[in-house]
Amino acid sequence: MAHIRLNTHPSQGGQAAPPIIWGARDPKLRGPVVGTVGDPAKRNAIGVHSGSYGIYRALAIAAQELKPDHRPDFTNTSPAEPIGPFESWFDPKKIVSLDPWGHMVAEVFADKLAAGWDIRPTIAVTKAHVNMPEIMDAMAAGRLKPDNDILSGSGDVKVTKAAIEPVWWLPGIAERFGVREVDLRRTLFEQTGGMYTELVTRPDLELFLPPIGGSTIYFFGDVSKLGKPDTKIACRLHDECNGSDVFGSDICTCRPYLAHGIEICIEMAQKGGVGVVIYNRKEGRALGEVTKFLVYNARKRQPGGDSAAQYFNRTECVAGVQDMRLQELMPDVFHWLGIARIDRFASMSNMKSDALREQGIEIVEQVAIPDELIPADAQVEMDAKKAAGYFTSKKPETAELAKAKGRGLNE
Amino acid sequence: MAHIRLNTHPSQGGQAAPPIIWGARDPKLRGPVVGTVGDPAKRNAIGVHSGSYGIYRALAIAAQELKPDHRPDFTNTSPAEPIGPFESWFDPKKIVSLDPWGHMVAEVFADKLAAGWDIRPTIAVTKAHVNMPEIMDAMAAGRLKPDNDILSGSGDVKVTKAAIEPVWWLPGIAERFGVREVDLRRTLFEQTGGMYTELVTRPDLELFLPPIGGSTIYFFGDVSKLGKPDTKIACRLHDECNGSDVFGSDICTCRPYLAHGIEICIEMAQKGGVGVVIYNRKEGRALGEVTKFLVYNARKRQPGGDSAAQYFNRTECVAGVQDMRLQELMPDVFHWLGIARIDRFASMSNMKSDALREQGIEIVEQVAIPDELIPADAQVEMDAKKAAGYFTSKKPETAELAKAKGRGLNE
């Protein structure tokens, strides 16, 4: 059996990693993201593809269910709709956490693939029909009307959708957070308990494929209108909440807001604009669900009951921060889509709107969730967020915040 | 600034990691899982807590939003319902991918926590009310009746729920897959592009906290009845499918089957049993959503159209395997819950039922999804799975499998 190589170094093998000129206009000059483990000389990224599912791939090889040298056959997999390139792809500071060419690798790197390079897409674009009961409700209430194209009378909605895996260009990530790249690399290495020595030994490798979840985008309307300044855009920017999104838990407004955002996106598409729903895998404010459930218990059991005044404190006691979503990276996807202006933004979050404006994306109208869509037990969250800076026409009074409005744990 | 330590070794510092005797009856003898980065001498696990959200934690520290020395305050966070210990916790071969004491660390390791050890829960148990439109439909159709306790007339369902982060005991994982531990460790290291040198340098560290998603369990009925042989159990074992579970995409039966499973769980709880829905983060058969969307395109565009006969082939061409969920580890959660028999199992998957039986869990009745709940475009998937071994009363004919039943990509 071959020697195990614990750490790699830039000089090793006398061959430099294939260069990346992030933001270069010509994709051949920009160079492909190569996260292969089968061909070390061509590798120019730390980590492997598929986000956290890269661990399942390794386990499948260990279990002898997958051959380590399998190369994907990309026949018929190309994007169902073209997206880009847009001018925003060529400013290396605008997109730092995804590869804008990620869906087009089979096309723009066809010569390298033919020469045997193991290059993989980090984005895929397909089409689907979706059907959510809330859309039927919106039709029944007369808020939406079927058009037999985008929205059928049975509630089927035609969408284009894109899945995106994270690709971090480390110099850009460091600059976005205002820290030195060397400190970013060292902290990522040390605070993950030593994940990827290459973060510190390979400053020549500027790309990192982190083992985290990515994003999914649902498009409503004509995707070819993206990138045109006169196209009106509606948007819901949604961070995963499995308990509400899937199971309809009533402690938060996540699924109601998602459904409301989709309603607004369908409406915009019917008027000739494009609706964009962005779904980010950041469960429990990126603290994960174990922390989220611990906080639920602490909120419901605290002396005085579950109140808006203590809402953020309880998270901070357990997690050390109120929120770990780091919205600084989130605007990248808008630059990928050539969106510089959101006409109708279905979100009240000041963290999201501030982060978008910081990256030069204009928000024309921020659309609040209608009161009748807020579950009773979620009023604590809404009051706390409004007091903390959420977009609202009426900030709650201090006395209101101190009231226990959430159910007790055993109710 | 301190020297960066690239690799660690067992002899280092002259102090051995706190021992783990996996499966030991006394939790103090078993020992705590310690995934801290703040106190290396007490660390006995490779990796960090929170699954893939550990990377967000590291990034938050790099961005100077979180102090690296923050210790959680666990006041009021203890489980909303007790679970275990059960006899199955004390067979080290029965549970290898989670820590059965994970929700009880503040109780069973109280002395070590008081002495300053950084021990964190890997499981949290809370309570919630959930509400899904499909449950209202089931009441309207007369299949479910409100009881004003578990199920209210407005469709609110009372649940207990648990979030579980993965904790891998590497000797047990290796044995489960029938491979040598040294080979498992090396393959996990090399095939992730060098994630965690400790996988190979630290054979003394038997625990690994992999950066992958975990599981959520929804309980219907009285949780204290778990572990009693006469308690009837209904179960839906569900692998994440964001497109269907959240957005209601009609290409598969995921959300319809989940809702049907919940219906069966509510029914069982109303009859005095316990319903258990297990939700595993294994998107797109643990291949991830980018691969899933590439496969959708290949299925819809192939000559002859989207047919059951080609269903699994298209996945294998892209991913190298038909499935990467590795159901071998999935039964652990049943042993954690003291469940040795599932009376009503809402799943047709032979991969799931085979894996459960292999681990000694009896399945009394396998409940198929009613035909009227299958979306038209999902018929391709259903036919393919039935032909491949899914539980069904009528296997499809070969001629039937060759028919293109799925929509074209642009329909």
From TrEMBL, chains A, B:
Gene Ontology molecular functions: GTP binding; GTP cyclohydrolase II activity
Any coiled-coil regions, as ranges: none
Disordered: region residues: 1-22
Domain GTP cyclohydrolase N-terminal: 3-191
Swiss-Prot/TrEMBL keywords: GTP-binding, Hydrolase, Nucleotide-binding
Alphabetical list of InterPro entries matching this protein: GTP_CH_N, GTP_cyclohydro_II, RibA, RibA-like_sf
Keyword GTP-binding set for record: yes
GTP cyclohydrolase II domain span: 224-367
UniProt-listed GO biological process terms: riboflavin biosynthetic process
UniProt cross-references to Pfam families, sorted A to Z: GTP_CH_N, GTP_cyclohydro2
Name under which the protein is recorded: GTP cyclohydrolase II
Species assigned in the record: Reyranella soli
